[in-house]
Amino acid sequence: MAESTTKAVAAAITKLLRPMVMFLLRNGVPYQTFADIAKRVYVDLATEKFDIPGRKPSKSRVAILTGLSRREVLRVKRLPPQDDLGALDRINRAARVVSGWVVDRRFSDASGQPTDLPFEGGNVSFLQLVKLYSGDAPARAVLDELTRVGVVERTPDGWIRLLERSYIPKAGEIDKIAMLGSDPSDLFSTIDHNIRHPEAPFFQRKVTYDNLPSEALPELKELAGEQSQALLERVDRWMSARDRDVNPRVTGTGRKRAVVGIYYWQEDYKGEGER
Description:
By secondary structure, the chain is mainly alpha-helical.
């Protein structure tokens, strides 16, 4: 790697790590714990993605690729896995149900808004919604989850009302932390793809201004939220119509995962060289 590229990578990683380390410090995660997690990722990827076809991955090769000693490679391999797959599966299932409730006209009223649903009974019920958009997940468990995080509520007459048009938990710190691991990973992978494949880039854009008055930000935040939600709902309708879990009649080959994400951020401006 050229020296200029090395410096650029180091600068980018330093900037990337600052909010991550701030998060770790706030949550009481010491450096050694982070170092062990980072080593585990290095060892796993060196083993899975940089193998030599036809040859079994060896500790020596992993050591060469990662810069770790063979003893350290063995120690890291024995560390317990850190993936919280239960949280991610819970988030994905709940998000699909909320998405279906918003975009599927069968579960909307005359004005196109998500309608209150009985728990069961007929084709327009919460039970049917879960069957369509969350596979074999128990409807009662999905309802409990959505209620727990403040996305739905029970009306006085016992029907189920959608309070939020997207699954962003108001409660449940574990779920929010799981999203922290999932969402930035997709953005980082998009940027990495665009660096490696400039001839076939994925869409990656943002709009940034650094001299806005504080009074303008509430309106900007509201505008960004409304426009972004509308766009995501249109994309959601398009994707759900072609997803074979939602629509088994869709034909085609392969199994691909696609993500369209939007985010909003604001902070006090810091000039060049400021921290």
